[in-house]
Write a structure and sequence with these properties.
ten-stranded mixed beta sheet, single chain, alpha/beta, 12 strands, 11 helices
Length: 382
């Protein structure tokens, strides 16, 4: 994948040593040489490998969505104070700073909040940055009413349980937003579906389609999906639903986020979203489209029924390969919980893992449309 992505960003973001950062505060348990929180809810490790995976996932989504802030800020003015909740390494804030700076807005202050203080000193990267160590599930959040112009929630569906906990956090986000401030939420689904051939572009799509430019697909209510066809992905889907259901966490948050925000219509307005499906490999039906175009009478640019998308190019395939890597790394990170849910012994799990890696990485096992679903949702405080 092009290191600049679709944005041309060249953030000089580097990961420091985190050892001293995570030795204080919450307690940990080591499983399979990975460090996990002693927490009955949060399922992912807290270590350098996982933070790098999350950073790569963020970069992929910024590239496909076209920018790190999808809400239409250009229609008013750029935010002056931004809160990055569950900020992790602060990588999104770094990309967001670069993005706004490219428009000439470099006087924006960023605040990151997380349970662990693992973000580097972003002041050295030119950001006006402060970090607050706090558990986002503990309310009230340590901020004043109306303190921020933009509050970003990224990948928090594995942090807060469904029901009261997530509702309280949403209420807090609204409280600390100033009038006209924007709440933006980025999420991915943790189950995997297959995209059916030649999905239509949603009617709501407009402007430059950075998803298509990068080999992904904008999705909407009419996008055709089917259950995953790959047997290993089918296994994983069953196990991850089991794992997350036990913890009252969402396995497919993208399906409900629009509804969640619309339910807050007394407090929020100007709702919007942008959803994408990122294939994990080149799909067989993409070859079919190329073959059709090469066949006499198979369609042309003047024929409305012809296929306008061609087989993915090298850069688009590289992005899909990176996306597949993040999915496989996530499965590896969840191994202790997935293995428990599967009922497999350690030897049985290793055979399954070896077969999955071979299927997806060497045998093009995701050619039947398996994809990562992700998106951005936003609303403005009334």
């Amino acid at each position: 994948m092009n290191s600049k992505g679709a944005l041309g960003l060249t953030s000089n973001f580097t990961l420091p040593s985190y050892t001293s950062s995570v030795d204080h505060g919450p307690s940990f348990i080591v499983r399979n040489s990975r460090r996990y929180l002693r927490d009955p809810t949060y399922p992912l490790p807290c270590d350098l490998v996982e933070w790098q995976r999350q950073n790569l996932s963020t970069r992929i989504r910024v590239t496909v969505l076209g920018k790190p802030v999808c809400s239409p800020w250009q229609q008013i003015s750029p935010p002056k104070k931004i809160l990055d909740l569950c900020c992790g390494t602060g990588y999104w804030s770094s990309l967001c700073h670069d993005y706004f700076s490219s428009y000439g807005f470099s006087d924006i202050s960023f605040t990151g909040l997380d349970l662990l203080g693992v973000a580097p000193d972003l002041d050295k990267h030119g950001l006006n940055w402060r970090f607050v160590q706090h558990d986002v599930r503990t309310v009230p959040l340590p901020f004043d009413d109306g303190e921020f112009d933009l509050v970003m929630l990224k990948d928090t569906s594995l942090v807060t349980c469904q029901g009261g906990q997530s509702e309280h956090m949403l209420d807090e986000c609204v409280r600390i937003l100033g009038p006209g401030g924007v709440l933006e939420i980025w999420e991915t689904d943790y189950t995997v579906r297959s995209l059916l051939p030649h999905p239509p572009t949603p009617s709501s799509a407009g402007g430059r389609d950075t998803a298509a430019l990068n080999g992904a697909f904008l999705t909407g209510p009419g996008t055709p999906f089917a259950i995953a066809q790959n047997n290993y992905i089918q296994d994983y889907n069953v196990w991850i639903r089991n794992v997350l259901d036990r913890r009252k966490l969402l396995s497919a948050p993208c399906a409900i986020l629009a509804q969640v925000l619309l339910q807050e219509s007394e407090k929020l307005s100007d709702f919007g979203y942008r959803r994408v499906a990122i294939p994990l490999a080149e799909m067989r039906w993409e070859h079919d489209a190329v073959d059709e175009e090469a066949t006499p009478g198979g369609g042309s640019a003047s024929n409305p029924s012809s296929h306008t998308r061609r087989a993915p190019d090298a850069d688009q395939l590289a992005l899909r390969s990176s996306c597949l890597l993040t999915v496989m790394q996530m499965i590896e990170a969840l191994e202790p919980l997935l293995r428990d849910a599967s009922g497999k012994s350690e030897d049985e799990w290793q055979r399954w893992w070896t077969g999955m890696v071979s299927s997806l990485s060497e045998q093009n096992g995701a050619a039947t449309g398996e994809c990562l679903e992700a998106g951005a949702w936003w609303a403005r405080k009334v």
